[in-house]
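Review form for a predicted model. The reviewer records the input and the model, then writes brief findings.
Reviewer: anonymous (R2)
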Amino acid sequence: MLFEIAQKINLRKHSSLFVLLVGAGCLYLLNVVLYFYLSSNEYAKYGLISSYLAIVTVFSGFGFDQVLTRYAVQNEEGMSLPRSTIIPSFTLVVFSSLVFALLFNMFFLRGSFFISFFISVLSGIALYYFTVFRLVSFFVSAQMQKNLWKIFVPIVVYVYAVYFELDSTVILQSILFLMFITAVLGFFTYCSTNIQFFSGRAYDWKLLFGYFFAMIIMNFLTSSDRFIVEYKIGSDELAKYFFLQNIFLFPLTQLQNYFGFKDVTHFKRGVSSTFLAKKTANNLIVSLIVSFMILIIFFFAAQYGILGEGVSFDYAMIFLLLGLGIIRVLYSSLSAAVSVVADYKAINLLNVYSVGVIICGSLYLYLSSKLDLIDVVAVYILYWSARALSYHLYLRRHLGEV
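Model under review:
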């Protein structure tokens, strides 16, 4: 009977989702448990480390993964990539790693330059493997590049917590070691693929600039809020904010990542308004179900004191974070479709629109004398809603609906 159920669900088809869920679940539990184990100051530092990881995971290649995805060619022999993309891509990885590590070391966590640099380089390598494995439909291997370290870092942290002294620096070192192991495993998998290379296409720097600009915006939208909270409100509030994000927003962002991950491959075969509408409706339904489940689990945990007696919650913050997560899930398929069909002019136009909204919101956050966490979340809901709406309107026009 169990075999019949497994056949109906088609577990092999969704095994990459399993890897993503395990990685997300391990990181989710680690983030929550560390809130009670670390001091408020150390947990705030850990929150900044998580933000740094989120930035370099997406941004370490300046958008080269989008260029690879756009110009990859599917033929009878398999997937082919333009040879001209390789050297510029890894040059950008090294350059961006230097910049990110210097900034993070100067302004947020002093003494972390070399660790931060190598983490960023390994993130760029993982991003390259992730992109290639996704294109050749090695979905499990692709997700392993992003999630293997998340699965094992709680074990390393537990060992240090029991037998040694645990702090944010130890966690950063553990992540570096696990990402190196992931890169080695990725290399052996990469050697087993049938990926081919072709010559003759010059590196499209205009398209890269458009995606690079988009990456800046996406990193601002996904990671800058914690830095703003730390700068404008303080470390104690950052620790509280990071904890609330992990409980209510983190599961939905993982859903966003998974839908975007899968949809790019689907849209490479063709984008239609009907298919996009179905994907968006599916995303909405799933995100509402997941939000409802999060609320049920939270109320159960709060009622039985699982989260601790000293933990208090602002219900307005809870629903705002869930609303932000739902908007981000809806955005995922729109973003995947745009990355496949848009040219550099359209991408730059969409970016300019987003920058205008971001400037307005940032001025409010900067000039506000009495900023609180609800203000920050409300502004980020505005950011994501405006970007999703602009993508939706562009796709309607591009697909002939207007």
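Findings: Residues 204-402 form one domain.
Further findings: Strands lie at 73-75, 78-82, 196-198.
Recommendation: see findings above.
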